């Protein structure tokens, strides 16, 4: 199965650092007072820690991101998770923190093939992309001829095409082209030319010849046996 590209998942939290001098010896958030070193979960995605300074001022800051399964990713670090990598990033300009999911460059396709590797399965040449996703590069004939994706090539007298649709369906097929050729058609009625010689009228006409050598006229339909089609 050819998979599509991995969608990025991003969660953003604006980091608010608050200083409050005198009176309260802890951080206040949503009506709750937290002491020095206390932590709480914000938006189910960020761990916020309270820090109380020696001058009794305090601040709250994001110290980690939280994955959907509750694992923590410390700020400015990343965590490999199967074919994905989670990154807990901080923007110094707007003081925001974001949890981002991206394809992993260490992922394996089919559990064995590293990113960047190219191999052939049956009649298809495949490549492993970041995140463990497989991309079709070309179709391959029995003789080893490559037909690039979404192109048509002539191989051993056949027009061979390798097509991939948006829904992932792949069609690899070929057919022997019907080649029209010009043949003289002789009409038996005699005429006299300006030189006085009599002879038949010869008029060129276009005909097609099928795979068995039988002539076909313009507008004829017939079925060729020399064709093949392979679907994935």
Automatic annotation (TrEMBL):
Keyword annotations of the record: Membrane, Transmembrane, Transmembrane helix
Domain of life: Eukaryota
Residues covered by the Abnormal cell migration protein 18-like fibronectin type I domain: 26-94, 114-169
Annotated Pfam families: Fn1_2
Membrane-spanning parts: 12-32
Keyword Chaperone: no
PANTHER family: PROTEIN CBG04538-RELATED
Protein known as: Sushi domain-containing protein
């Amino acid at each position: 199965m050819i998979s599509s590209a991995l969608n990025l998942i991003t969660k953003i939290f604006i980091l608010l650092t608050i200083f409050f001098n005198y009176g309260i010896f802890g951080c206040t958030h949503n009506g709750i007072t937290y002491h020095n070193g206390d932590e709480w979960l914000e938006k189910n995605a960020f761990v916020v820690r309270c820090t109380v300074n020696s001058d009794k001022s305090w601040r709250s800051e994001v110290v980690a991101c939280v994955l959907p399964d509750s694992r923590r990713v410390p700020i400015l670090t990343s965590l490999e998770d199967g074919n994905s990598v989670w990154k807990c990033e901080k923007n110094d300009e707007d003081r925001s923190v974001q949890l981002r999911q991206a394809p992993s460059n260490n992922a394996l396709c089919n559990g064995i093939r590293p990113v960047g590797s190219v191999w052939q399965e049956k009649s298809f040449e495949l490549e492993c992309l970041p995140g463990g996703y497989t991309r079709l590069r070309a179709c391959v004939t029995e003789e080893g001829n490559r037909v690039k994706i979404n192109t048509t090539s002539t191989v051993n007298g056949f027009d061979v095409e390798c097509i991939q649709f948006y829904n992932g369906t792949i069609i690899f097929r070929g057919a022997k082209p019907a080649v029209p050729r010009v043949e003289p058609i002789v009409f038996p009625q005699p005429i006299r030319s300006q030189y006085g010689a009599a002879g038949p009228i010869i008029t060129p006409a276009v005909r097609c010849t099928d795979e068995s050598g039988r002539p076909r006229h313009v507008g004829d339909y017939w079925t060729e046996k020399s064709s093949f089609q392979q679907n994935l």
